[in-house]
């Protein structure tokens, strides 16, 4: 089986996509204002990609090692109900979420960028990463985005899944006004 055929087979099964935040949905930088408040930069295209995936029936979740009000706000904006913050050990959160949703590991895609993501990345059906991820993560990923974290990598991943699940043409037709 070719790499693309394997990727398609994996993507067709996906019912849940979990994203790390720092380094995947953001550029990984830690920004603080004069008041000490943390800020993060998210890419708007990533948000639309996650919304398109969610609207097509695929659940979305965040599991992140840090804790930030900014992440809660972003999740609320995108109507993402499953948000696990402060999880430096991500595997227990992943296992709990799969159990709660009744989803098998091979029905999950996970997008991470650093060593703390490996415990989940090696267990999912579709392991995704960003172009500027740690080399050990890239080595174990089934698919690597052309984009770095916070610069549209999540959007590219969402579109790839939608395409391989046969949902992309209907979404595109809607935006072209030809549905």
Describe the structure.
With 179 residues, the protein is of the alpha/beta class. Helix 1 (3-12) crosses helix 7 (153-164) and helix 2 packs parallel to helix 7. It has helices at residues 3-12, 44-55, 69-77, 91-101, 118-121, 135-140, 153-164, 168-176; strands spanning 16-19, 31-32, 38-39, 59-63, 82-84, 108-111, 126-129, 143-144. The strands form 2 sheets. The protein has a 6-stranded parallel β-sheet, with helices on both faces. The mean pLDDT is 95. The longest helix is centred in the N-terminal third of the chain and has 12 residues, at 44-55.
Describe the structure concisely.
By secondary structure, the protein is of the alpha/beta class. The chain contains eight helices and eight strands.
Helical residue percent band: 40-55%
CATH class wording = Alpha Beta
Largest sheet: 6 strands, parallel
Name given to the CATH homologous superfamily: HAD superfamily/HAD-like
Strand order within the widest beta sheet: 5-4-1-6-7-8
The number of helical runs is 8
* Main structural class: alpha/beta
The whole-angstrom Rg is 16 Å
The tally of strands reads 8
Instruction: Give the rounded overall mean pLDDT.
Output: 95
CATH fold-level topology: Rossmann fold
Shape: globular
String of helices and strands: HEEEHEHEHEHEHEHH
How many domains? The number is 1
Are there runs of 5+ residues with pLDDT below 50, and where? none
How far is it from the N-terminal to the C-terminal residue, by CA? 35 Å
Strand % is 5-15%
CATH architecture assignment name: 3-Layer(aba) Sandwich
């Amino acid at each position: 089986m070719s790499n693309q055929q394997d990727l398609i087979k994996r993507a067709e099964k996906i019912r849940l996509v979990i994203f790390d935040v720092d380094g995947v949905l953001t550029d990984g930088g830690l920004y603080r204002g004069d008041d000490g408040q943390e800020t993060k930069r998210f890419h708007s295209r990533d948000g639309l990609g996650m919304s398109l995936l969610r609207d097509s029936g695929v659940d979305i979740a965040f599991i992140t090692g840090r804790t930030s009000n900014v992440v809660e706000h972003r999740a609320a904006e995108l109507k993402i109900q499953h948000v696990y913050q402060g999880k430096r050990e991500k595997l227990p959160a992943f296992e709990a979420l799969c159990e709660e949703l009744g989803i098998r590991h091979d029905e999950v895609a996970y997008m991470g960028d650093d060593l703390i993501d490996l415990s989940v990345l090696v267990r999912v059906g579709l392991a995704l990463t960003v172009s500027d991820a740690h080399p050990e993560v890239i080595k174990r990923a089934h698919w690597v985005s052309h984009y770095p974290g916070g610069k549209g990598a999540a959007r590219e991943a969402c579109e790839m899944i939608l395409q391989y699940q046969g949902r992309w043409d209907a979404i595109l037709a809607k935006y072209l006004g030809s549905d």
